[in-house]
Each structure stands twice: as structure tokens, then as C-alpha cells.
Amino acid sequence: MRDTEPLLRCTDFPAIQRQTLEILQVNLGYLCNLSCTHCHVNAGPKRTELMSAETVDTVIEFIRHRGIRLLDLTGGAPEMNPHFRRLVSAARALGCEVIDRCNLTILLEPGYEDLAEFLADNKVHVVASLPCYEEANVNEQRGKGVYQSSIEALQKLNSLGYGGDPELVLDLVYNPNGAFLPPAQQMLQADYQSRLKQDHGVVFNDLLTITNMPISRFGSVLLAHGEFDDYLRLLKDNFSEDNLAAVMCKQLLSVDWQGRVFDCDFNQMLDWPSRLQRDSIASDRRYHYLRDLMEVALEEQPIVIGEHCYGCTAGQGSSCGGALDS
Hints:
The chain has helices spanning 53-66, 84-93, 115-121, 135-142, 146-159, 185-200, 216-224, 228-237, 265-270, 310-313; strands at residues 23-27, 70-74, 97-102, 125-129, 170-174, 207-209, 252-255, 261-262. By secondary structure, it is α/β, with parallel strands linked by helices. The chain has one domain (5-313): Alpha-Beta Barrel (TIM Barrel).
């Protein structure tokens, strides 16, 4: 698999800086029950990287010490980490909102049959990947039979109150299945809600449209098809300066399964660590670890940028919370 990382280093993307830290996004490991073509993590059933109990303890202490308001759990399938439930319970006990970025099908896997009930009991905000409301497109991206399993999982979440109870939020995520930008988020949301309700009786709160980044598995596909340069040009041609104010990295720390700190999930996959510059930490380190940042002020620190950053600022913008201009 060819790597796009060297092609993203030199960039004319505008410099940006950190603001007040509010969100801790934690990748609990690359193990997943699926292998999706658009996955920027290259996750799959054969991956063995998983966050340890000790690092999970550090995450909990960081939430407590820094007063983090939102814990955003990713993977792989984050639920496959054996410490997932302990981390969720501890964060909720600290008054921290928890997002579980769920692939839906994990809710039906052997050994996870009570996972949906656990999420509901802890009022976890579920952000679920469903790349399209049409079966053929989902199965193309995520594998044969995934669409039907996803619908069954959504119906299970609905039966527990998700999408209806205001305390049980269920959002869906749309990713394009090719080298193009997502359509307008609000219009696509209306289509999703109409079709899923009509065809399957499924309800949800919001649809989040996320632009595919030219890195990892998707980036390799672009290179293999000779589409990388054209896709990057598409992102740059649609750059909107207005989106710079709302990019998620300004208020977020991304933590990998080893406890290392990055400016965003995409930089984590590129292995571009944060370049923190403070007297209280060793600025010559390649990596900084979450355990070392308990007392470090992060405001106005520079954010590591590359050509892929145009993916977050093209068109309507894109973040882990969906379009930036909605």
C-alpha cells in the first residue's frame, strides 16, 4: 500500500493555533471487526494495537485534572478495547460527555450483545457510521451484508430510546464513496431521515458529513487509481477561509493508543505529533505523552498542518462534528 504522507508535507495552508482545550479525542486501538475502504486508520480484524489499562488510567486522570467536557472515543472499533466500559463509566462519573464512534455492526457481534444497553444506561452519545442510506453503496465501502447489520443495530438503538429520548443522542456519519466532496449536509440529512424512516422505521438526530482525507487506505486508493493530484486540487480549489475559525483541532487533543499526543486524528495517522513549545516540557522530543501535559497551558500553541488540512476547510467544511458551516 503506497503512502501519501511525503506528498502532504509541503503546504501553503494558513498557520493556525490552539484555543482553550475542551475535547479529548482518544483512539483506543486499531482493532476492528470491519475493514472499510474509506478508513483513514487502516483498522481491521487483524490489528493488535490496543490502549493499555495504565494509559486508560492516565486518560481518566487527565479528564479529572483538566476538567475536560467531552471525551470522543474512536478506533478501530473502540468498544473492542477491553477497558472501554471502565473508561466510559469513569468519564461519565466525572460529568464528562462521552461520544462513541460506533460502526454499528459491533453491536451484533458475539460478546457484545449487551453493548447497546450499556451505552444507553450511561447516556453515551452514539455517532454511527452509515456511509449511505442505500444498501449497495454501504456494502461497497464496508463489505457484503454490512448494510443489513447496520440497520438492525440502528433499530436496536431506537428500541432503547436513541433518536427519540433527548438524553440518548444518535447521529449518523456520511462519507463519500469516491473522490468528491460531500453534498450539502442539511439537504442530505433530510434524505437520510426520509428514506430510513420510510424503509426501516429508523430515526436519528443529526447527519454529519465528513470529507475523506487523502491519507492511509483512502489515500493509497487515490494513488493506485491516479486520482491523488486531482483530489487534492479539488480540496484546494474549494478552500473556504471562513471555515478556519471553526476547525476542530483548535479545541482538541488527539491521543493515540500509546498515549502519544497529536493535533488531530488525521495527523495521528500520518505520525505527525504535536510540536508543543513550553519550558515545562522537553521541546526536543519527537512525541509528547498525555501524562506529561497535566499542567501545560496549550493556548496559542502552533498546530501541525499539511496539505490534507484543505480537506477540513473545503466547501462546507468538515470535522468530526460534521460540516463547519451548518
